[in-house]
Amino acid sequence: ISGIHRPAKLVIDQQAIFDNVQQAVKRLPADTVLWAVVKADGYGHGMLQVAQAAAAAGATGFCVALLDEALGLRQAGFDQPILVLGVTPANQVTLAAQQRISLAAPDAAWLQTAAATLQNSTAPLSVHLAFDTGMGRIGVQTVAEVQAAMALLRQAPFVFDGVFTHFSTADEADTTHFNQQVQQFKTLLAAVGQRPRYVHVANSATSLWHQACASNVVRFGVAMYGLNPSGDALPLPYPLKPALRIESELTFVKQVPAGAAISYGATYHAAQPEWIGTIPVGYADGWQRRLQGFHVLINGQACEIVGRICMDQLMVRLPEKLPAGTKVTLVGTDGDTAISLQDVASFAHTIHYEIACGLTMRLPRVYLPYQA
Amino acid sequence: ISGIHRPAKLVIDQQAIFDNVQQAVKRLPADTVLWAVVKADGYGHGMLQVAQAAAAAGATGFCVALLDEALGLRQAGFDQPILVLGVTPANQVTLAAQQRISLAAPDAAWLQTAAATLQNSTAPLSVHLAFDTGMGRIGVQTVAEVQAAMALLRQAPFVFDGVFTHFSTADEADTTHFNQQVQQFKTLLAAVGQRPRYVHVANSATSLWHQACASNVVRFGVAMYGLNPSGDALPLPYPLKPALRIESELTFVKQVPAGAAISYGATYHAAQPEWIGTIPVGYADGWQRRLQGFHVLINGQACEIVGRICMDQLMVRLPEKLPAGTKVTLVGTDGDTAISLQDVASFAHTIHYEIACGLTMRLPRVYLPYQA
Ligand SMILES: Cc1ncc(COP(=O)(O)O)c(CN[C@H](C)C(=O)O)c1O
Ligand SMILES: Cc1ncc(COP(=O)(O)O)c(CN[C@H](C)C(=O)O)c1O
What we know:
Two copies of one chain form a homodimer. Chain A contains eleven helices and 20 strands. The first copy, chain A, is an alpha/beta fold. One N-(5'-phosphopyridoxyl)-D-alanine sits between chains A (37, 85, 166, 203-205, 219-223, 229, 353) and B (310-312). Chains A, B: GO terms for molecular function: alanine racemase activity; pyridoxal phosphate binding. Chains A, B: Its EC number is 5.1.1.1.
């Protein structure tokens, strides 16, 4: 009796992901590789399906936020390097070592606890030392802290595989803070002594708009999904293909008299007799309540979301009577019009990253396969 | 290699759900039953675990939004009446009939298509006719529409099991619109002729603050999860027990110098040397970016979320140096202080329903069992 019967779906185009990765890989310097950032279930697009398309297009490794996500990749058979970008509790490092999963080390104290835990591990742990150059999240901040970490890192049970930092403003026109981070990165890198195999600094924005500073891995996230990291603040140097669209259909259509109230709180009243369509998507799918007043596309026309968005349904004002079953586009192209994730994010005063990650598992995923 | 290694969890207290349902059932008139509304994965609490506790406490049926959710309950072995509140595409009605799942009928046109689809069905379909009395979402609006629907409903392949409506303002102090809906409900009900087995109008708010109007099922949703349907606009007539808390721990603690920037966009700068803690929860878990500036609890103290909330992590300002591994409460009680889902919702300018439903599946669920 299982299977999906719901007339609403998130369609993910693996070809778009493949193409975006292939474009990016083509533009890399010869000694630089691309690791696909597939954390948060591939920014809501599906971790395994994204990883598959990205690997086929030339991604040679993966970045995730959590050990559990890395284990999910290994369990699915992905054999490439995997780096956990967040801080893994030091008592779980043995499992990472066994599965050849690289971990970010935030400081010497973490390395010390990890070393103690790894005492009886048969496998060494691959570590990338995190530099906090101005993101303020994780990592060592000073030369002294680098040196303390290195004293531990050059020994068993560790394999010192990388150093990295993360830029907090690489998607902004003002490069002041970015340049300060670059300088601090150079200072800290100099304290490492011999460079490890992987040195990396670039997220999507850095790879698109900045000269890489002596790094050899790009951690390619949001651009892989076809999204401009800056929203629409900075123009893309080459086009990206959005990988996601959201489609549904009208499940119910009715005419209401002038004055009729729509949805919770009776916040909307029909100005005249109006045709109202009901769509089976709501905030429990990640279609935020703040999107009241935004629109969907039906037959190439924008239809306003009227009244409060419900948990599982929302209502739109139709230009005319339309049959139940009529196709509705919440994100994507319909005729000459389109709604991008950025349009949704702008209306909701957030970033497209959050809209994508917020699409809950209740919304069925449908994958369009790629051709290599 | 599976299992959960992440130091962040949603703890769901099945006892609270049990107690809330038991309290509500005790207060029902003798001929009225309680159906637990477990759509949207039990408002983010876990559909099956909520259903289990609710049934043990006296819920005799379930309401869901989608056929797929109803099938999930049947597949898990729940044998009680189940009503799908949303509009099920009429071409899927045979599956519902086979599984003894009741469907909401929004109008006569839907019944007509359903009847055609059910021609070869061995099982009849149980139907609850929806009255749109002022919610503006689904259902028949006029006496003529009731009569058209009834002409179809009194015949095979349908079992006419219920009529219902939904109030859009039952959680508000102003009862004007509510009373209009009640009046319209009475008018439409009179057009039905013989009352079906189930007549229902009450969501949580209606059951808490209004006299039921000749109904015999309460569709008990948000109050079952221990939440006040009105936020904090109306006082509860009896206490409810919140069923959900969110806990994590500090994964990284550092001191930053005065002026140091925290997180994306460098929107926060330390006013003086400050201790900053990193917590492995972010907007991809449903902890919305709008919660920047809100707080978490550590050792009974509120610690402000500083800088933008990231996809997988957030930073807080600590009162002093604290060890990594220190417990963090995002929702729940810590010492003499507490953060409720309503506190979170107020800060984010939304309703607790949306916060609960937005907690994504990446956040591990831990269940505390109930005792009957
Ligand atoms: C350390 C690190 N590297 C690389 C990336 C990829 O970024 P992008 O998607 O912009 O290419 C991220 C993503 N971060 C998310 C967005 C966050 O922490 O909020 C990251 O945290
Ligand atoms: C038809 C119907 N009945 C009963 C309930 C339970 O409501 P409550 O949780 O307030 O007790 C709901 C929930 N509705 C959600 C909230 C919605 O449609 O947005 C509903 O749609």
